[in-house]
Every structure is written in C-alpha cells, then in structure tokens.
Design brief:
eight-stranded antiparallel barrel, single chain, Porin, mainly beta, 11 strands, 1 helix
C-alpha cells in the first residue's frame, strides 16, 4: 500500500489542459461608417455580413482570409463644388460593397483564453454607387466632370485592431475596429468635383463568432502537488 502511494499522488497531480484550436471558421456582422466628399466625418451607419477563416497556429503571426457583403451610403443635400457653381454632382449615393481580403494578424497578447491583435491586409473592394431611386451613377456622366470615368473596383489595405475571447468549448467571440483604406475616390461617385483631397474610406466595427474547424486535443501536464 505504501509503495503505490507516490504513484497515486502523481496521478492526482495531473490535469488536462486544452490547447487553442489551430484554425477557425468565423461569421459575423459589421457596422460601416463612410467618409468621402459628401461627408468627411464618419457617419451614415450601414451594415455588412462577414465570413472567413482565421488561422491560429503561431504565437505571434497568423493569417486570415475573409469576404464581406453589405452597403455604404451618404447624403448632403447642400453639397456644392465650390470652384465651379455650374457643376452638378450627386448629393446622395448608396452602394453595395463586396470585399475579399487576406490579412496578417500580429498578436500583441496571446493568453490561454484571449488574444489581442493588430492586423494589416490587402484585398479588393467592388462597389456600385446608385442614386436615391436605385439608378446607377457609374454611367451618369453629368454627375462628374467632363470625360471623367472610373471603374467599380479598387485595391484596399485594411488595418484593424481586434480582440478574441475563447470560450471553454473552444468557440470564440471577437470584436474588431478598423479602416478599409480603399485606393479610390469614387465610392460616392464624386472625384474631380470633390471639395476634399484623398481617397474615400470606410470605418468598420465588427462582431464575430468563431467556430473551431478541428477540436483541440487535451494535453496532460503535471502540476505541483501540495
């Protein structure tokens, strides 16, 4: 009996410690706030749906691939192009917004049940500005300067700050805030007749739910017995 006592004490000091999943499938939604020529400040709240894959294999650097679909809009009933009073820019726009991107996450903190990170990515945004009646503005040349044309897609360089909390069942909940950083001035159909310099942008606040693509295995570690 005495001979097996040390063995029993060792077994009782063992605990199962769950590892974090190495990859997640996520879904969620985002609140979009547009900034452009019609309105320089971020307002006019609209939404997007999100889906993607988040890797979690490394302590410091991990990639993610995602897509989103939603809307952006803005209105300024008193908008004028100051240098040319004869200009006739649109004063309202609404556009669908489809994005696809790859992002690299840099973990600032990675603990057993939460991760705080910054991310920088590259992707493509497609948009289709319309008037208040749902008519496309892309080919309505009277709303832009003579001979001014543009395409309906743009490279974007999204930058975000995010927080992910891991539940005991290996699922996760996440919050993100960041900018899409598009490389176009035409999300609102206004370019040369704009009163501000720089590209249009979208500020996003996102909520995500993460589902593990593979359940983590439990590793057995020895804890010091009293």
């Amino acid at each position: 009996m005495v001979s097996i006592l040390p063995l029993l004490l060792f077994i009782s000091s063992l605990a199962a410690e769950a590892q974090q999943p190495r990859s997640f499938l996520y879904g969620g939604f985002a609140m979009n706030q547009f900034s452009g020529d019609l309105q320089a400040d971020y307002n006019a709240y609209t939404g997007s749906f999100l889906v993607g894959v988040q890797l979690n294999r490394s302590k410091r650097l991990n990639g993610s691939f995602g897509i989103s679909y939603g809307k952006i809009s803005s209105e300024n009933s008193e908008y004028r192009f100051s240098p040319d009073p004869t200009a006739s820019p649109n004063r309202f726009f609404s556009s669908s917004l489809f994005t696809i991107q790859y992002e690299l996450h840099v973990n600032m903190l990675k603990k057993e049940n939460y991760i705080l990170y910054l991310s920088q990515g590259i992707g493509l945004a497609r948009y289709k500005p319309e008037d208040d009646l749902g008519n496309s503005l892309l080919n309505r040349y009277t709303t832009r300067a003579p001979n001014e044309t543009y395409g309906n897609s743009s490279i974007m360089l999204p930058s975000r700050l995010g927080f992910m909390y891991l539940l005991p069942n290996a699922w996760g909940l996440g919050l993100e805030a960041g900018y899409l950083n598009t490389l176009t001035d035409y999300l609102d159909n206004i370019g040369q007749w704009g009163n501000r310099k720089g590209n249009d942008n979208v500020l996003q606040f996102s909520f995500k739910v993460y589902a593990p693509l593979k359940r983590p295995t439990a590793t057995v570690t020895a804890k010091n017995s009293p």
